[in-house]
Amino acid sequence: xxxxxxxxxxPPRLGVHxxxxxxxxxxxxxxxxxxxxxxxxxxxxxRVRLDGPSLGVFSAHVPGVQPGQRYGFRAHxxxxxxxxxxxxxxxxxxxxxxxxxxxxxxxxxxTYGHVVDDQLRGDPHGAADGRDSAAxxxxxxxxxxxxxxxxxxxxxxxxTPWRDTVVYEAHVKGLTALAEHVPPExxxxxxxxxxPTVIEHLVRLGVTAVELLPxxxxxxxxxxxxxxxxxxWGYNTLGFFAPHAPYATELARRLGPAAVLAELRTAVHAxxxxxxxxxxxxxxxxxxxxxxxxxHLSWRGLDNAVYYAHDGNIxxxxxxxxxCGNTLDxxxxxxxxxxxxxxxxxADVVGVDGFRFDLAVTLGRGTQGFTPDxxxxxxxxxxxxLHALKRIAExxxxxxxxxxxxxxxxxxxxxxxxxxxxxxxxxxxDPGRAAHGLPGHxxxxxxxxxxxxxxxxxxxxxxxxxxxxxxxxxxxxHDGFTLADLVAYEHKHNAANGEQNRDGSDDNRSWNHGVExxxxxxxxxxxxxxxxxxxxxxxxxxxxxxxxxxxxTAGDELxxxxxxxxxxxxxxxxxxxxSWKLPPxxxxxxxxxxxxxxxxxxxxxxxxxxxxxxxxxxxxxxxDLAWFGPDGAPFDHAxxxxxxxxxxxxxxxxxxxxxxxxxxxxNGALDQLAVRLPPDHVARWQLAWDSxxxxxxxERLTAIAGGLHAxxxxxxxxxxxxxxxxxxx
Length: 729
Hints:
Elements: E1 2-3, E2 15-19, E3 22-28, E4 34-41, E5 44-49, E6 51-54, E7 57-63, E8 70-76, E9 79-80, E10 85-86, E11 101-102, E12 139-141, E13 167-170, H1 172-176, H2 190-193, H3 196-205, E14 209-212, E15 216-218, H4 222-226, E16 237-243, H5 250-255, H6 257-273, E17 277-282, H7 299-307, H8 333-350, E18 354-357, H9 360-363, E19 365-366, E20 369-370, H10 375-382, E21 390-393, E22 413-416, H11 417-434, H12 444-450, H13 454-457, E23 471-474, H14 483-486, H15 528-545, E24 549-553, H16 584-602, E25 625-628, H17 637-640, E26 647-654, E27 660-667, E28 673-676, E29 684-690, H18 698-704, E30 709-711, E31 715-718, E32 722-728
Parallel strand pairs: 1-5, 13-14, 13-24, 14-17, 17-18, 18-21, 21-22, 22-23, 23-24
Antiparallel strand pairs: 2-3, 3-7, 4-5, 4-8, 6-7, 8-12, 9-10, 11-12, 15-16, 19-20, 25-26, 26-27, 27-32, 28-31, 29-30, 29-32
Helix pairs in contact: 8-10, 11-12, 11-15, 15-16
C-alpha cells in the first residue's frame, strides 16, 4: 500500500489532474473512513492511500503517473445500508470526474455491493458482497486537458440569436449509421456527425443548432441486458465528464480516451465552421446505478448518503422522482458543484454552445420542492463559462408538483408540451374524432400556441420580460412517435421492447386516417396516403411558422418511421436509425421542410422577438397580431368559444424598418371552404406556401392558374385540412 502526501497548498480539485511530475487526485466521500487510489496495469493493481478527509475530500499528489494510466477508487467505511451507508472496498469505483473511461460494464453479481444470486436477486439491506469487481467495471483513464481551451475561440462560435434558432435533435449513432454517403468507418460516430455531406444536409435544411442526445458515458440497465437489448438513447449516465467512447471511430477507441475526446472536439469545430451550434442533452437528474437494489459502480460506493436523495424518515429509502430508481440530491451543495463542474468542462474544453437539461425540475428541487431560484439554476445562468450559452429545460419530472412548464427563470428556454398537444389535437386527434361525428377542441388553444404561448411564458418580473423564443416548440422528439408515424398509427406498437406493449405513452393524439400502419401504394387503402402526407405538411408548417423556437427531430424531414414504436429507447437498430433513402414522397417532404425554413428566415414576422399586444406594430402600422374568421371578420369572444369553428386567419406584423406582414390561413375542417382574406391590412398578398402542395415548386402551377396573388377582401378556396401562408406582395 503506497501513501503519497500532497505538497500543494491549493485546495484540491476534484478528479484527477495532470501536473508536471504526475497527477493530483481528489475525491469527495464525507462518510468514508479511507479511500484508495488504484492504479491499474495488465494484471496488477497498485493502491495509494489518499490523505483526508478534509471537508469530506480525500486527496493526494502522486508523482510518476502519466496520461493514459487506468485507475479507480476503493472506499473503506461502514456497511450500514439501513442508514444509507454502503462502503465496500471489494468494489472498484469509477471516479465521478473521470475524463475518460475504458472497458465495458459487466452485469454479473460482482458488480453489486450487496449479495445477489445469479438472477441478480438479493436483499439490498443484507450482507456486503466480497467479490472483487475490478475486472467487471469500466476503468477511469488519466487524460491531460491542461492545454485544451475549447476547439474554437469564443469569437469564432456561431452565437445564433434565439430569434433565428432552429434546433435539430439527433442521435450521434442513429444520424449516420445508415448514411451510405458517409464512409463506412465513420458511420454512427462523432466523425460521421461532422462529415461534409451530413453538414451540407443540415445547412441546406435550414437548422441552426444540433442538439445531441446524451454523449456522456452511459450504460444499459440490467433488465435490458437480460433481454438482449441496450439503452440506445443514453439517458443512464455513468460519467458526467467522459465522452461515450462507443460513438468514436474504431481508430480513436484503439488510441484511447484522449483520442475519443479529440474526435468529439473536432466534430464540434467542424459544425461551428458551418455556422451550426452544438447543444448537448445532459442527464444530471439520476445515474445508471438504479435503485437501492442496483449496481455498485461509483457514487453509491463513494457516498450513497450524500449523492442520492433519501427519505428523511427512512434513511435507507431512496427518493425517486425520475422514474429511473434514484435521484441525485440537489439539496446538497456537493451535487450542485459536481453538476456545475461538468457543465463548465463541456463548455470550456469540448466547446459546446449549450445544454438541454433532462427532467430539469429535479435539478431545481430544494428542501421545499421546486423553486426557480434554486442555486443550480441561478449558477447555470450566471457562471462566466455558461451565462452566454443556450440553456433549455425539460420542465417536468414525475415527482410531486413535477409539471413546471413556463416556470423556469430566464434566459432558459423550455420544451413546450402544451404546443405539442394542441397542434397534434388540432390537426390529427380532432379530425379523427370529427370523422366519426364526435366534437373536438376549440381553436383558441392552437391559436395561443401559434402566437407564442404568452399564457405560459409571459409571467415573471416584469411581466412579458421573456419572449416567445423561450417556448421551444416541438411536435416530436426522441420519445414518442415520429412525424410520419403520427399520421399512420393510432396505437403504439412496442412489442419489440419486451414489455408486452405496456411501455410508452397512450396519449399520442395521432390519427391513422382510417388504416393502421403502412399502406402499399397499390392497395385498396392507398387513397389515405395523400391525406397522410398533407397532415405531415400541416404539422411541419405549424411548427415552423409558429412564434417561438422550433425543434425538429432528426429524420422527420425525411419521413422517418419507427413502425409505430413510440418508446424506442432500447432499439439500437434500423428501427431507430435514420434512413437516408429518398423515394419521391420523402424527397418532396425534404424540399417542403427546406422551403418552410427558408420562409421563416426571410420574414421577420415569423420570428417574433416580443409577445404580441394586439396594438399597432408601429406608428401608422397594422396591429402586431390580428385574428379573423373565414368571412374575413375579426374574431370576437363568441367565436373563440365556438367549438364548431375550425377555420381561422392570423396576421402577424413587424414594425419599420422591417415592416413585414405574414398571413397564415388555416382550414381545420373536413370540408373545402371559401375564405375571405382580411381587408384593410395589405393591398396584395402573395401566396408563399400551401400545404396541399406535394412539392414547393407547385407554386409555379398555381401562378400559371392565376392563384398566386390575392387582395384584401378577396375570396380564396382552401382544401379540407390545409393551411396557406401569404406574404406581403
